[in-house]
């Protein structure tokens, strides 16, 4: 009887340990996924700013060229 109780206890302990480890791994995977999404978002925002800045500089250059190329 003691052997059966110890076997069932060990089995339950292993099962709980496995569930806890799976839960921790799932949580880490979710956190990693969120971090990757945040990183992609930041990169996209940075790219958009660079593009916007380039366009703004191009607009300024074009206006300056138009001013200097006007006939007098």
Please, could you describe this protein's structure?
This protein is mostly helical and 72 residues long. Helices cover 93% and strands 0% of the residues. The longest helix has 67 residues, at 2-68.
Can you lay out the helices and strands and say which pair or pack?
Blueprint: H1 2-68
The fraction of residues in strands falls at under 5%
Low-confidence stretches: none
Secondary structure class reads mainly alpha
Q: Rounded to an integer, what's the Rg over CA atoms?
A: 31 Å
Number of strands: 0
SSE order, as H and E? H
User: Strand count, sense and closure of the main sheet?
Assistant: none
Helix content: over 70%
Number of helices: 1
What oligomeric state is this? single chain
Shape: rod-shaped
First-last Cα distance: 109 Å
The overall average pLDDT, rounded, is 90
Short description:
It contains 1 helix and no strands.
Summary tags:
mainly alpha; 1 helix; 93% helix; 72 residues; 0% strand
């Amino acid at each position: 009887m003691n052997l059966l109780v110890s076997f069932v206890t060990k089995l339950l302990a292993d099962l709980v340990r496995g569930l806890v480890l799976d839960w921790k791994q799932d949580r880490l995977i979710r956190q990693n996924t969120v971090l990757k999404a945040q990183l992609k978002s930041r990169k996209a925002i940075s790219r958009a700013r660079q593009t916007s800045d380039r366009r703004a500089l191009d607009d300024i250059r074009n206006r300056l060229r138009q001013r200097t190329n006007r006939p007098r």
